[in-house]
Queue: 2 jobs
Job 1
Amino acid sequence: MSEIDENQYSQIFETVQNVQKIQEMVHKFFASNMTIGELEKELEKIIGPELAELAAITEVTRAASKREQETARLLKDKTGVEMVPIWNTNNDDLVCEVCKSKNGKPIVDNRFPPEHLGCRCWVNYELPEIG
């Protein structure tokens, strides 16, 4: 993956058409048995090969994180139980120092994955401690 900064990455979202196409492809990824590699190939048609891998990873992470947050919020609304979000990494050589320092810890600053471009982190939720 080549070095791409936030500015270059944000340019792919400058048109509504690109945003809609990327959202459709990410939705298709979750709704089917599509692999991340297949998503990347589809995104290449929209934004080119240089950004496709980065977008596939980042946007799948973003969509999953937002859906998980929404599910936790709905659970709180229905039951009154506020789940505790816990940051998780793949714990491998690709994990950055920022994410590594958050691994296994509760999210208290309301900053959810993706923390950065290419972030592969995720959140799981735990019941709060009673007492």
Note: Helices lie at 6-10, 16-31, 36-47, 49-79, 97-102.
Job 2
Amino acid sequence: MLNAGNPIGVMDSGIGGLTVVRELQRILPGEDIIYFGDSANCPYGNKTSDQIFDLSCNMLRFLGDNGVKCTAIACNTISTMADRLRPCFDYQIISTLPSITSASTYLTCYTFADTLSKGITYNKHDVVLEFFTDAACTDPVAKWAETDGKFTVTYSSTDTGESGMTIEMTADGLKEMNTAVYSDASMVNSGYSDCTLRITYAATVNSSADVVYGDNGNPNEVVLTWKRTSQNSYDTLKDDAKVFTYGLELTKLFSDGKGDFSKVQFIMQNKIDGYYVKARLDEATGVYYVTDHVADKKDATRLVPTVKDGKGKILIKGLEDDEYTVTEIKTADGYTLLKKGIAVVISRKDASTSAAVDGKQAAMLADNGSANALVPLSVVNTSGFDLPATGDRGVWMYGLAGMLLMTASAACIIIARKRFK
């Protein structure tokens, strides 16, 4: 979780982005800024789109690891990849290596086969393997990147649309795992025996009708296969996890049933991380699917209700469990605009999900048989007008006008009485 005190990130392929930093310091003097200028790989202009994407993901991951609340892209070349730099999440696969005590127990195969549900895809070219002496992964021994030649990564897809990734140790990787010597290693064991292996990579939830929303989740299965020198057969270990994502169903009404829904606009902001929600509308179904998280309010998607049975509906899917503010920024002429944003909280705990709207528990709706998928809320606009936002002086002026009217009225009564007498 992030908060308003977290720094702002700025990324560029070199040092040119420092002009953006100076401008941010001018207009936001109280903000801390972390700048990542990738001078080691500059220039980006002669690189392929995949190379630019990989380098950009590395910068985003570094800034994310350092807790930035938002990131400004100060490079025109990188900005062309903005559609691919969508919200992603980090996966971790944790395993404990078997005991290795002699050449007969050396590992001759150590392979992970990972499968993601339909609608979730690997970012690719970002797999990192780390070895630790402890299960909590606090005492590191070694760290491998894909370019080190210690393992290979291949990608595949199934006929049903699932994505697959296989991580296989190379001969050099197996040799190090079997024979490496590190500080504080047991005299009995060899190599990285009994060490904890952590594999990290990133994947993206491509919000669409393919994704499961709510408590059913989106399965992620991983199978570990290994073999020793002394074995003729392979051992396997299977595990799975789930990725959860949610939606919001907003019902829009006018008190007299006559308002124009096409004039209504809402935006959503993540209250904790500070980003605004960007989404695409599926015209056929009337569903908005989250596609991006943006720092600037002007880039947020204006959510317009679709009309069904005389009611306006906004259905948006692809939200993470977190805190949001839903704000009405426009409504039909002749109707009052909501003065305050609506607080929506989605919480997942103990294998179940709950939601609250403005501090009150909300009974979440199911979606395609998956419970607790959508947060329901209703907004009713009444006919009327909004007082001008004149501030303290304006309030004083209205008060003065009221006092003058009361004084004039009292004077009329007194004069009338005098004349009557």
Note: The two ends are 77 Å apart (CA to CA).
